[in-house]
Amino acid sequence: MKLHLFICFSLFLGLTSFSQQISGSELLNKAIKYHDPNNNWETFNASFNVIMETPNNSNRNSKIVINLPEEHFYLKAKRDTIITEYNLNKDTCTISLNGEKNISDDVLKANNLSCERASLYKNYYTYLYGLPMKLKDDGTIIDNKVEQKTFKGKDYLVLKVNYDSNVGKDVWYFYFNPENYAMEVYQFYKTDDKGSVKKDSGEYILLTGEEIIRGIKMPKNRAWYYNKADDYLGTDILKK
């Protein structure tokens, strides 16, 4: 027992020491090297599918196309008998509902369809599936200090990220495996008018499995939970 405790304590000290030696930018670079070893993200052009599972709802099946060089984004989502499509080509936006493109304003409003929503989806999927590479974007503030934390019984190197006010107000934490620098958890909190974190706000996301899309290791499963009370929200499942 004493030997076991000594070994665990020694490992903890080693991890803590390492987290003090590595900077935030160095940790991010190592994580990007793991997820995108050939620097493919800047020229990313691929399609993939996402199944969203949520409690008490039928699944939503989505086909997503992200073409960064051509500034093109396409989303086709199907839930039950409803099929919606968003197509963004640079500044041009088209929307269809069950194959119909000539949609009245009343129908658009009733189904919460708009080009503003299309842009939100584009930013949402590009950000999530572009992590951790997207942390190199302008307006992202990487904390230089790397922390060692235990989350759900596992040790991580944790990167704190803030954003310029014109980008976002949330505070994010990214949890990386200390052995291979794979991103396994991320978490965000809302802030108040003074910029202080609201501890009972926000969500955390557990990442499991991997799919390789255009040479990039992307999380296969994203399980979403509220920080407050660990309430489960749903899971996104990535499929080629």
Structural notes for this entry:
The protein folds into 2 domains: 22-40 and 139-239, no CATH class; 45-129, no CATH class. β4 (82-89) and β5 (92-97) form a beta hairpin. It is globular. The chain contains 4 helices and 12 strands, in the order ααβββββααβββββββ. With 240 residues, the chain is an alpha+beta fold. The longest helix has 20 residues, at 2-21.
User: What share of residues is helical?
Assistant: 10-25%
Low-confidence stretches: 1-14
How many domains make up the coordinates? 2
What is the residue-mean pLDDT, rounded to a whole number?
92
Strand arrangement in the largest pleated sheet:
5-4-3-2-1-12-11-10-9-8-7-6
How widely separated are the two ends? 47 Å
Query: Total number of helical segments?
Result: 4
| Biggest sheet descriptor | 12 strands, antiparallel
How much strand? Answer: 35-45%
Please state the CA-atom Rg, rounded to the nearest Å.
20 Å
Q: How does the overall form come out from the CA principal axes?
A: globular
Strand elements, count = 12
Sketch the topology as an H/E string, one letter per element. HHEEEEEHHEEEEEEE
Strand-pairing-aware structural class? alpha+beta
Main attributes?
single chain; 240 residues; alpha+beta; 2 domains; twelve-stranded antiparallel β-sheet; 4 helices; 12 strands; disordered N terminus; DUF6503 family protein; DUF6503
